[in-house]
TrEMBL record:
<dbReference type="GO" id="GO:0005886">
    <property type="term" value="C:plasma membrane"/>
</dbReference>
<feature type="transmembrane region" description="Helical">
    <location>
        <begin position="49"/>
        <end position="72"/>
    </location>
</feature>
<dbReference type="GO" id="GO:0055085">
    <property type="term" value="P:transmembrane transport"/>
</dbReference>
<keyword id="KW-0812">Transmembrane</keyword>
<keyword id="KW-0813">Transport</keyword>
<feature type="transmembrane region" description="Helical">
    <location>
        <begin position="130"/>
        <end position="155"/>
    </location>
</feature>
<protein>
    <submittedName>
        <fullName>Peptide ABC transporter, permease protein</fullName>
    </submittedName>
</protein>
<keyword id="KW-0472">Membrane</keyword>
<feature type="domain" description="ABC transmembrane type-1">
    <location>
        <begin position="45"/>
        <end position="261"/>
    </location>
</feature>
<keyword id="KW-1133">Transmembrane helix</keyword>
<dbReference type="InterPro" id="IPR000515">
    <property type="entry name" value="MetI-like"/>
</dbReference>
<dbReference type="InterPro" id="IPR035906">
    <property type="entry name" value="MetI-like_sf"/>
</dbReference>
<feature type="transmembrane region" description="Helical">
    <location>
        <begin position="238"/>
        <end position="264"/>
    </location>
</feature>
<feature type="transmembrane region" description="Helical">
    <location>
        <begin position="84"/>
        <end position="110"/>
    </location>
</feature>
<comment type="similarity">
    <text>Belongs to the binding-protein-dependent transport system permease family.</text>
</comment>
<dbReference type="Pfam" id="PF00528">
    <property type="entry name" value="BPD_transp_1"/>
</dbReference>
<feature type="transmembrane region" description="Helical">
    <location>
        <begin position="192"/>
        <end position="218"/>
    </location>
</feature>
Amino acid sequence: MAFGFTDAPLYQQYFTYVLHLFQGDLGISVAYFPANVTEVIATGLGWTLLLSGIAVIIAFSLGTALGVVATWRRGGWLDSVMPPVLIFLGAFPYFWLAMVLLYALGFVFGIFPLRHAYSDTLAPALSGEFIFSVVQHMVLPVAAIVIASLGGWMLSMRSTMVGVLAEDYITMANAKGLSQKRIMFHYAARNALLPNITGFGMALGFVLSGSLLTEIVFSYPGQGYLLIQAVRNQDYPLMQGIFLTITLAVLAANLLVDVLYVWLDPRTRAR
């Protein structure tokens, strides 16, 4: 055996790999030799979770809120203008919006930094200057992801809300004289939110891979950037480790969705 490669039979290699997998040993990275794959993935995992996690939460929260308000005030400007505009912007891929934002706000006007996750002159530390630099470098990539996905969340919530508003319990709530704000958020929005929870869970699951091209555009040191480096250097152990991480994230997201359903939908607790 040399550099992690062996001439052993395939079945033996497979069982050896599974055994090492349960021990947390994903092998040695070719591109970052002699570093372990687990160590390499750990360097980018935090940045990807921070970037994509914040982007998904903002897009989901803002899109859901816009969908609720647009449905409640059907026919208004928010219901008539915002959906087509957001769908038009959502038709563009993340990386295209990222390049436009990078060129306009980073290169032409110089408002935001062009690359990396923080200033090259700073060392990672729990200081106000470093945190401000991280937030400043995060604005453009987060904005690209949010703009591209906002329309889908809004339309999904709007279509669900339209069906919920026709239910008998909404009519009963109006007949009881409850305030419109309470009916909208406590009766209509909460029940309309349930189908969107599934989409939110899947979005969290793919958060490790969804920002792949966005990270490349901004040279952001996350999982996507590591995956591209692994492909370029034919680093198969690192690619396997990243794909495994994404798979585990999807499974964890599905578990989170099941837990949220029990909390949000009383019918599941009664069964």
